[in-house]
Amino acid sequence: MTETASGSVARGGRRPRKGLKMKRIFTKPGVHPYDEIQWERRDVVMTNWRDGSVNFEQRGVEFPEFWSVNAANIVTTKYFRGAVGTPQREWSLKQLIDRVVGVYTRTGVENGYFASEEDAEIFDHELKHALAHQVFAFNSPVWFNVGTQSPQQVSACFILSVDDQMESILEWYKEEGVIFKGGSGSGVNLSRIRSSKELLSSGGTASGPVSFMRGADASAGTIKSGGATRRAAKMVVLDVDHPDIEEFIETKAREEDKVRALRDAGFDMDLGGKDIVSVQYQNANNSVRVSDEFMRAVEKGGEFGLRARLTGEVIEKVDAKDLFRKMAKAAWECADPGLQYDDTINDWHTTPETGRITASNPCSEYVHLDNSSCNLASINLLKFLKDDNSFNVADFVKLTELIITAMDISISFADFPTEKIGETTRAYRQLGIGYANLGALLMASGHAYDSDGGRAVAAAITSLMTGVSYRRSAEMAGVVGPYDGYARNAEPHKRVMRKHAAANDDLRTVGSMDAKIHSEASRQWSECLKLGEKHGYRNAQASLLAPTGTIGLMMDCDTTGIEPDLALVKFKKLVGGGSMQIVNQTIPRALKQLGYQQEQIEAIVEYIAEHSHVVDAPGLRQEHYEVFDCAMGERAIAPMGHVRMMAATQPFLSGAISKTVNLPESATVDDIEQVYMEGWQLGLKALAVYRDNCKVGQPLSAGNGSKKEEPQAEPEVKVVEVNRPTRRRMPNQRPSMTTRFTVGGAKGYMTASSYPDDGLGEVFLKMSKQGSTLAGVMDAFSVAISIGLQYGVPLETYMSKFVNMRFEPAGMTDDPDIRMATSVMDYIFRRLALDHLPYDERAALGIFSAAERAAQQRGEDPAALQEPVDREALAQSAPIEPQSEKEQPVAELTLESHQRFTADAPLCMTCGTKMRPAGSCYVCEGCGSTSGCS
């Protein structure tokens, strides 16, 4: 535990206070932390996913040799400041860390945080060591802004407020725009705005909050975020007793119906399509703020009152179960709305005398006062797992102290996007320490994610982290004073501290690892309560669990935030380009911990590399399968496994948890109702769900015509002669076209042969070595399709069955006409349609060539571009010879091809890689871009 000592000078000329006495964790006296690192020079070259051109290049950058290529690329492209090619451009990680840490250290000295110059130096060296060794990371705005000429914005999370006045609503639009322009996200509760069922003072009817959401959504879609191409990140919340709640619930689901209808009608509704902008309300996450009163009404079955905004009187009563069902149904259809449990949130509120908590940031982990912000930092938990499989409790405690100290110092120099946010944040000093790599830590230590042991470890670590953070906050209050709003909120703040400590007392340990962590957590909470009673607290909030998208990649984490592993096999970028498939390094460590010998470990790892799962792995006992369960795949963790993990950690967090509970496509509305209900019963603060493919799978049109009813024949017995189809065999010589394609990194060849007088009659596909299972399946599939075509099955029939089919490999293709495919089958039949069907028939299926799409944008008739296929020229052309079996790989292993865990995740608008979940947001493993908080 860090001690305090007298001798520092407080800011503003106040009387001297005690300063913090720092202790070393990783560094040695007289040795700079950089001197103990092996540094190396690298070249960072990023290419454009559309045409392969170079869109970023910086050569000779300097990083520690143990940093991965991906982490170095992300830091170089995102965080290095200065124009590329100028002397001002940063070229070393040392420069980046020095720029940031230098400001923290100087500010700490100026504001009297340290007992002596030596303590300031220890703080400086320990911070630099931890950052350079990927032990923790600040959120992205710190790396963007600190130590530059830009405003020193350090916060990633913002909450705004809006009142029932037009001036306030317009100010909300403006404030959101400023925040989006700076690359951050915000949340707001619109429940103060009168409903469309209430009257204005002039006698007219109010517009209601949903109508104003439309304007804010358009603004967000126009401004984007940070000047980049990705959409802005925002959260919109509405209270469950608002009279417009049903309209709010169904808003995004209705828009999804619009997308389907427009796509079926031939409009370009694909990612980046020119018609997608007509879809509204897509730039925000929507959440309903539900009360205990409402949830009890759902349990018991009864009516629930919707209240006027100005008077509070009940103006309408609804069936609570029906309303709850509508929430679940909308979430089943389009993943929105999520739920925020209002009474639970405010029961853990440290500053209720200042105001209620009404909203959250876009990813739902930051829940605090209106017009406030929070800066984040996350610890890489795997760094604390020792070789003997114990958790390094002592170092974890010291590092948490260090991080909380640095985060609080940052508020002293930080700039904020609006004056109101600045005033609130400086007065309440909200922090958001969290962690990443929990899933990797559990697997490496032999704990199943969905198990009592796994939850006990996670709960103990979370309790220890928050206990140390608030104990440190009380120490800082004794040095530089408590937060300005503490005096009026002292009693409720101390009450919440006691609630955390009581939850820690109730924690039941399972194994030796969590028992040792819990023992230290109990000691920290005891000390926290004593120091808090004496000094108060420096921070109104200390901890939460953020998505850790970009910074998780910066730290080379296998898992983000509280998430489990997504898959057992991942792809590692190589120096000089390309990537290779590797089995997650936590797996051999886990197998060793579980008692397997080296020969067995090698055999199991080899099996996993080939099959991507552990089922039937040689020598692996079935009772150990659960240790290797992942978010997706052969043995996916059940939805309630995610909910139970959130419930285990929530009592030890000041804020909430950014996490989406994934459900399979087969999940029902009842399943979502159960998740939402149990989330409330288990004490969560917020919860969102996502059913696989709920937003992407588009039903095909049923056709333009309908069959006329035939008159019913007389009921007499007849002998009916059935005309059986006959096979029209292909001639020995026929025109053919061979297409080489790549879908999501997997290469293949398709040879399509036609009858000389037109008409497709044969298709053959090759994607693997002869004799392999995949090759056999593709051969059988080719024969079946070819025979069907020769018996007269129309190509359009196959189109309706196989277009939009989803399975891996999927993603980007090398075909300019078909930039993205949901599977190999989806690509093949789209390509066949473009090559063999007339425009009118393809248009009904929404399949257009690049030239036709361009003609549509110019306002020209795409059908005019259609040219008949020259069969004679096709027959004379030499088909492309496929590669030899030796040369042709089963699938080119690239980062983009490894996306089996979320078939409908969005594509990164920066580099084109399919993104993966990170909490409630998405992160791109190719370039580090995120769809929400960084």
Automatic annotation (TrEMBL):
Name the UniProt key words of this record, in alphabetical order: Cobalamin, Cobalt, Disulfide bond, DNA synthesis, Nucleotide-binding, Oxidoreductase
Domain named TSCPD: residues? 731-834
Q: Which Pfam families match?
A: Ribonuc_red_2_N, Ribonuc_red_lgC, TSCPD
Catalyzes what?
Answer: a 2'-deoxyribonucleoside 5'-diphosphate + [thioredoxin]-disulfide + H2O = a ribonucleoside 5'-diphosphate + [thioredoxin]-dithiol
- Residues in Ribonucleotide reductase large subunit C-terminal domain copies: 155-690
> Which one GO biological process term can you cite for this protein?
DNA biosynthetic process
The GO terms this record gives for MF are: cobalamin binding; cobalt ion binding; nucleotide binding; ribonucleoside-diphosphate reductase activity, thioredoxin disulfide as acceptor
Q: Where is the Ribonucleotide reductase class II vitamin B12-dependent N-terminal domain?
A: 44-134
Can you tell me which family this protein belongs to? Belongs to the ribonucleoside diphosphate reductase class-2 family.
Q: Show the PANTHER family listed in the entry.
A: RIBONUCLEOSIDE-DIPHOSPHATE REDUCTASE, VITAMIN B12-DEPENDENT RIBONUCLEOTIDE REDUCTASE
Q: What is this protein called?
A: Vitamin B12-dependent ribonucleotide reductase
Q: Native species of this protein? A: Nonomuraea mesophila
